[in-house]
Amino acid sequence: MSTLVGHNQAVIPDDVARSVILPSSYRDEAGIVHPALTWLRANMPFARAELEGYHPIWLATRHADIVEIEKTPKVFRSGLGEPYINSIVDTEFLKEMNEGRRGLDTLANMDAPEHTKIKNVTSAWFMPANVRTREESIRQIARASVEKFFSFDGECDFVNDIAVHYPLRVIMSLFGVPEKDEPIMLKLTQDMFGNSDPEQQRKDVPVTPDVAARAWRAAIMEFHSYFNQLAAARRAQPTDDLASIIANAKVDGEYLPDSFVNGYYIAIATAGHDTTSSTTVTAMQQLANHPDQFRAAQADPGLIPGLVDEALRWASPVKHFHRIVGEDTDFRGQHLEAGQSVMLMYPSANRDESVFDNPWDFDITRRPNKHIAFGYGPHQCIGQHVAKLEMRIFFEELLPRLKSFEVAGPVSYVEANFLSGPKTLPLRFTKA
Ligand code: HEM
Fold it and tell me: Which has the least CB within 10 A, 10, 64, 309, 381?
């Protein structure tokens, strides 16, 4: 299947590249994306895709290669473009709308030393010791979600009835956004990240790249106006929430510029819930498929952290992050030119046969579990301890109260190549 061009420049067959890169493939990740990733790991683990409508993209599919790239941020840069892959039309459109500047002043778009300074503003807040002080308030939110689950009387859509709301409430409470404004946050996140999914678009407007890019920009503008007011309120009256920490932080003796405060707020508000929600849904789906593991976790809550890690590995809700080559370089026998894109395929790393025994088995007792669902290196997810804590607490509250449950209908998935996961999970259940 491989095509060799020039000096050892392997070009990925078109059907494989389409299966990995196009957002539409993610409607069937198990049937389309994973077979292509498995083929790439075995045959062309680091190779170039030249797909119509996209600039050439290097695809990294092995765990070790992704780790290596993430450990070399001077060459594989984050600050030279958007953190995720866009088509040429989208890229040009966004550049035009952003007047040549980077889209958002946010961590994922920065390189050191700027990245280090800005990340340090919240790194102590996000450390396990501080995050654990929120355990009791998160548990209250988890209990309310579990009550809501049982109010559905034996059947619900676990995604839309429960899982999208719980992480949103947790992150917004840590952040300081009142509950009444959560629907706005949810809608804006979906506009930003689900914008290639026709079902998450306005029904009266056809989804062209132009429409999707405008929706993205409109969402950012709305976020800005909301967050400008929030930052002003926290500077006037500081509190101990995350919004206040960021609004009142000083770097080199100055408050962060508004665009940086906004970029931080948007990253936390958006990265913090869709990802956690998809992972929670995946954990439920897999427990339904493996009743023995459900019983085991129910009998021994000490297995719940293992459940969370295995669900992270299995779901890998962030499908890729993107780096831009900062200077001509050679990597794994290939010559990369400055300005080229590299797509780091986390779902592939997390099924890598050379790292995981039986990678296609869902196993909550897997030890060690070296998944990189949170990335690796200096850009590794800042919210990982929050995400793990809130999922652990949710399952600690839910599992003892469940007698049995099963998947009660077809599961559908979001059409997006950056953040994707189940869009619906119909469940039938009985109370313990
Ligand atoms: C299951 C949940 C989550 C997953 C799977 C996830 C995954 C990721 C991944 C893969 C990255 C990129 C890492 C890299 O480039 O090496 C990332 C970065 C980031 N995440 Fe998360 N994330 C999750 C939850 C959260 C939460 C709860 C928050 C906030 C409270 C958050 C905030 C961020 C931020 C701000 C970054 C940028 C960090 C940087 O560039 O330095 N994430 N996340």
Answer: 64
Q: Which atom of ligand 1 is nearest to the CA of 242?
A: 30
Terminal CA-to-CA distance of the chain, rounded, Å?
53
CATH at 396: 1.10.630.10
Residue 57 lies in domain:
3-431
In contact, 57 and 21? CB cutoff 8 Å: yes
- Residue with CA at minimum distance from ligand 1 atom 41: 379
Residue 419 Cβ inside 6 Å of ligand 1? The answer reads no
Please give the distance, rounded to the nearest whole angstrom, from the Cα atom of residue 387 to the centre of ligand 1: 9
CB of 386 within 6 A of ligand 1: the answer is: yes
Sign of CA dihedral 269, 272, 275, 279: negative
How many domains would you assign to the chain?
Answer: 1
Residues in the chain: 432
DSSP string, 78-122: STTS-SS---HHHHHHHHHHTTTS-S---GGG--TTHHHHHHHHH
Query: In whole angstroms, what is the distance from residue 27 CA to residue 336 CA?
Result: 31
The Cα angle at residue 415 between residues 201 and 336, in degrees rounded to 5: 120
260 vs 266: CA distance, rounded Å: 10
Burial of 124 (0-12, 13-18, 19+ CB in 10 A): exposed
For ligand 1, atom 6, the nearest C-alpha belongs to 374
Kindly give the pairing relationship between strand 422-424 and strand 46-49.
unpaired
What phi, psi does 368 have (nearest 5°)? -75, 165
Rounded CA-CA distance 227/265 in Å is 7
Q: Is the dihedral of CA 170, 176, 178, 184 positive or negative?
A: negative
| Pairwise CA distance, residues 396 & 90, whole Å | 43
Residue showing tokens 């049995």? 404
Mutational test site, ligand 1, from 374, 376, 417, 419, max ligand atoms within 8 Å of CB: 374
Strand 46-49 and strand 57-60: the pairing is: antiparallel
Centroid of ligand 1 to alpha carbon of 373 (angstroms): 9
214-235 pLDDT, tens digit per residue, is 777 788 888 888 888 999 999 9
Q: Per-residue pLDDT tens for 33-92?
A: 999 999 999 999 999 999 999 999 999 999 999 999 999 999 999 999 888 888 887 777
As a whole number of angstroms, the distance between CA 216 and CA 94 comes to 9
Q: Is 421 in the pocket of ligand 1 (CB under 6 A)?
A: no
